[in-house]
Design goal:
Elements: E1 5-22, E2 28-48, E3 53-55, H1 68-80, E4 85-91, H2 102-118, H3 124-131, H4 138-143, E5 147-150, E6 155-158, E7 165-170, H5 177-182, H6 208-214, H7 216-226, E8 231-233, E9 240-244, H8 247-254, E10 262-269, H9 273-281
Helix pairs in contact: 1-2, 2-3, 6-7
Length: about 280
């Protein structure tokens, strides 16, 4: 049986996020642009013949059966009838609740990685459809290409934004996404436009005002970053990012971070590091 397969679960950024309305069922219509980062978690898979899914790395406060990695593995077993199992461990680098898609990316890497390891031969399109049951952001990570997203985040158009360098900073707080989307301060009336025609000079995040009101420390980090480069919040937060023209400039600004703030420098990439690694494994 094959040896251990190690694959990245990259972070994502929402380079812009506009909310264009609210549906009767409570879901919000949006327009956004996803790009991956060459930074994220690393997952390690070893096949088992007994069908057991054993997650060796535990997340504090999350039962193993509720972990998206375990759920993704069981979903693939269920859909394909595969009798194999896996031992799975995670080198966790992405913060929970940071707006970087860490949990969704882990789930996508589990689907794509185990599909490869077990030889189940499911197409990426099918894996993305199944992944939607695990979370709205899982399909974008399965597809592995930078993309515009519309509707409630399920309608994709391939994109090729500039592959800039970013300094990403995580304020010391976790954002309650439900609270943000229920907030009366949330901007919900951005005009719906041809998404591919939205210029970089117009890029913004409609969630920022509501998040800043409930979490002033995020606004503080945002304002600090804005002094050095164009800055924005990703998703519903809490992470904020600033764009730089070079790794040197991003790293120099990172060195100025106050000691109680955590951050990292990464490059935006339009093809997921997950798929880059798998192409080498194939």
């Amino acid at each position: 049986m094959a040896t251990t397969l190690s694959l990245p679960a990259p972070a994502k950024l929402n380079l812009f996020l506009f909310i264009t309305g609210r549906r009767p069922d409570g879901y919000h219509e949006l327009q956004t642009l996803f790009q991956f980062l060459d930074f994220g978690d690393e997952l390690h898979f070893s096949p088992r013949a007994d069908g057991q899914i054993c997650l060796e790395s535990k997340l504090e406060g999350v039962a193993a059966e509720d972990n998206l990695i375990v759920r993704a593995a069981r979903l693939l077993q269920e859909k394909t009838g595969c009798p194999l199992g896996a031992d799975i461990s995670v080198d966790k680098r992405l913060p929970m609740g940071g707006g970087l898609g860490g949990g969704s990316s882990d789930a996508a890497t589990a689907l794509v990685g185990l599909n490869h390891l077990w030889g189940t031969g499911v197409s990426l399109e099918q894996l993305a459809q199944w992944g939607l049951a695990l979370g709205a952001d899982v399909p974008i990570f399965v597809r592995g290409r930078a993309a515009y997203a519309e509707g409630v985040g399920e309608i994709f158009t391939d994109a090729a934004p500039p592959e800039s360098w970013y300094l990403v900073v995580r304020p010391p707080v976790s954002v309650n996404t439900g609270l943000v989307f229920q907030s009366p301060d949330l901007k919900r009336d951005s005009p719906k436009r041809l998404i591919t025609a939205i210029e970089p000079t117009e890029w913004a995040n409609d969630c920022e005002a509501a998040v800043f009101k409930h979490y002033p420390v995020i606004e503080k980090v945002f304002s600090w970053l804005l002094e050095y480069a164009p800055a924005r919040m990703t998703g519903t937060g809490c992470c904020v990012f600033a764009r730089f023209d070079s790794q040197v400039a991003a790293t120099a600004t990172q060195a100025l971070l106050p000691p109680h703030w955590q951050g990292f420098v990464a490059k935006g990439v339009n093809r997921s590091p997950l798929h880059e690694r798998l192409a080498v494994c194939a």
